[in-house]
Amino acid sequence: MLKFNEEQQVKDIQGALELRPEVENIVDEIYDRGFDNIFYLGIGGTYASAMQAVTYINGKSNLPVYVQHAAEYYTTGNKRLTKESLVIISSVTGTTEEVVHATKMVKEVGATILGFIDTKDSLLSKICDYVISYPNPGTEQLKFFMVADRLMYKQGEFTDYTEYYKELDEHLAVGLVEAEKEADEFGRIFAEKHRHDAMHYFIGAGNQWGAVYSYAMCYWEEQSWLRSKSIHSAEFLHGTLEVIDETTPVTLFIGEDEQRPLSERVAKLLPRICGDSTFIDTKDYKVKGISEKYRGRILTVLLMHAVTQRIDAHVEKLNCHPLDIRRYYRQFEY
Amino acid sequence: MLKFNEEQQVKDIQGALELRPEVENIVDEIYDRGFDNIFYLGIGGTYASAMQAVTYINGKSNLPVYVQHAAEYYTTGNKRLTKESLVIISSVTGTTEEVVHATKMVKEVGATILGFIDTKDSLLSKICDYVISYPNPGTEQLKFFMVADRLMYKQGEFTDYTEYYKELDEHLAVGLVEAEKEADEFGRIFAEKHRHDAMHYFIGAGNQWGAVYSYAMCYWEEQSWLRSKSIHSAEFLHGTLEVIDETTPVTLFIGEDEQRPLSERVAKLLPRICGDSTFIDTKDYKVKGISEKYRGRILTVLLMHAVTQRIDAHVEKLNCHPLDIRRYYRQFEY
User: Fold this and answer.
1) The SIS domain covers which part of the protein (chains A, B) (predicted)?
2) What is the mean pLDDT of residues B131-152?
3) What are the boundaries of each domain within chain B?
4) Where are the beta strands (DSSP E) in A32-81?
5) CATH of domain B179-318
6) Percent of chain B at pLDDT above 70?
7) CATH architecture classification, A6-154
8) Which residues have a Cβ under 8 Å from the Cβ of A315 and sit 6 or more positions away?
């Protein structure tokens, strides 16, 4: 299989899960001290992960948690982000300009900053109050959700936290590589069919909204240089549907959280107005050892990524386009 | 001038401004009673207007105000929307399925609902605690901002509220029709050039983010059946930029609020990577009688709409495509 190192991928997920004692110590300390609001702060891909974490928490918890866009923070500001607030960030390089700028301001306000910063000696690492370094960008959502889960546990809103993580610790990593193997043939066919699309529409809701947002922008546009548009399932029905016809390539991500019905509604409509639609439904990927009731949490987020990763690997090869090159980003000053 | 009734348009804006005593009475009553959180709730176009109002307030106020997507509300929920909350909605027909569904749930929670419902005897009118009916969809943002301004005034955060509205009452309506006249030739040229674009990118930030979001979706996609993608100026630099080249049609909306620098950064980059970009800068439209310091509030929101309205009028005529027809929306059940 292309770009697939089973052993390494299992190790990566297992390693992220092993951060849990460290996450728990930090979150418990912050929780016991108290806070007014929680902000997941990001830009681009980390903004998408922040949206996923916040949608996840909103569906299950009373915690005052919000997404804060980094660049909107240092321009518009947010008076409800105070010295009593908790701000959670993530960065691979630790140098993302807008996040550094925003985080410096957050620091001045005096909020507590918890950062998953993969580069230990970076600017961002120095600004954070708590830093967890585990250089593996593919586990960002898992890290964000681990914080969310611990916060909900402390809040008394996740009583079976221990059982839940026992299942993840034992079955998540292997479940994901198995799903990738299962999805590879789909990924190849999809890549062959769509690798020259003039435009591709990606639709999703719930924790799949952040997934389509980042998949269209960070993978198709940024990495594969393919044009794509992401649209929330509920918003699709209020405008975008009118430009869809027989030949428009549309892919719907269907997850398993509270917003699944919004995507199911689109799934019902699409075949009537579009001759080129694909549904990726996480329900089609069984994962041994993870209870049904836990699937709508982190599992479906990572399952969707496992599937789209197969598409990307084939697009990269077929289009003769290395995913790590950029035309403009960080190539010159602007 | 095409589709331009100067007298009627002045009357429409003036009429909306004359709702102010009614808005003030309602807001004062609600404010004096107290609330925990404020939610602008919407979907599609009203979701975009909600984003504009909330971004506006966040830049100037300490009010706990949030955007709440209607369909996300009745699926994911929001435990911080309580019986002490204020929910603000807007609807032309008063029957938008998702908003009716969400608002019914909000009613059960017991929050106070203030609705700008253009159809008096509609379902939504009956659900709201306070209804203001002024059948003019073009004034939705002005209504949302009037509520915002009064709330900030009550909060002690808008001390020159009276002077501000004196200027709007006297100069806004005429200023907007003058801007439309000024923009008409630009609108015609833009329409002629772009009316067959396979895809058009619209970029903006601050209160222009809601503007590009709704312009791409509710005008180009829904009304003109033209493909378009909206992207926030800050997000554009984190992915979408990579698919831009010499021949990609891109239009940047530049406003005058706190996020203007985010769009100026894109304005600096675009000419270096794109041979088909257009900047619409509200600064190019002087409006007599409105002080410089007040331009970044509702004025620039409505100015941008005045300009894009000229594009739409010409596209409608040139493309022989009536803007009020729909392929799918409300044409059949789904």
Assistant:
1) 26-158
2) 95
3) 6-154, 179-318
4) 38-42, 65-69
5) 3.40.50.10490
6) 100
7) 3-Layer(aba) Sandwich (3.40)
8) A191, A195, A224, A226, A321
CB pairs under 8 A between A and B: 170
Best B37, B41, B76 residue to mutate vs chain A (most A CBs within 10 Å): B76
From residue B250, alpha-carbon distances to B1, B201, B266, B275 in Å are: 26, 5, 11, 9
Q: Is B8 exposed, middle or buried (0-12, 13-18, 19+ CB in 10 A)?
A: exposed
Interface pTM, i.e. ipTM: 0.97
Residues of chain A with C-beta less than 8 angstroms from the C-beta of B240: 217, 221-222
- Tell me if B235 and A261 make a contact (CB, 8 A cut-off): no
Q: Which residues of chain A have pLDDT under 50?
A: none
- Within an 8 Å CB–CB cutoff, is residue A274 touching chain B? no
- Kindly list the residues from chain A whose CB atom is less than 8 angstroms away from the CB atom of residue B59: 76-77
DSSP calls for B73-86: HHHT--TT--TT-E
Mutate to test the interface with B, among A55, A231, A238, A277 (most CBs of B within 10 A): A238
Question: Quick one: pLDDT at residue B138?
Answer: 87
Residues 6+ apart with CB under 8 A from A12: A136, A138, A139, A173
Contact A222 B238 (CB under 8 A): yes
Is there a shared CATH topology between the A6-154 domain and the A172-318 domain? yes
Q: What's the confidence (pLDDT) of residue B201?
A: 98
Q: Indicate the class that CATH gives domain A172-318.
A: alpha beta
> Do residue A62 and residue B80 have CB atoms under 8 angstroms apart?
yes
CA dihedral B160, B166, B171, B176 (to 10 degrees): 60
β partners of residue A23: none
Tell the residue number behind the tokens 């007599």, with chain if given. Answer: B288
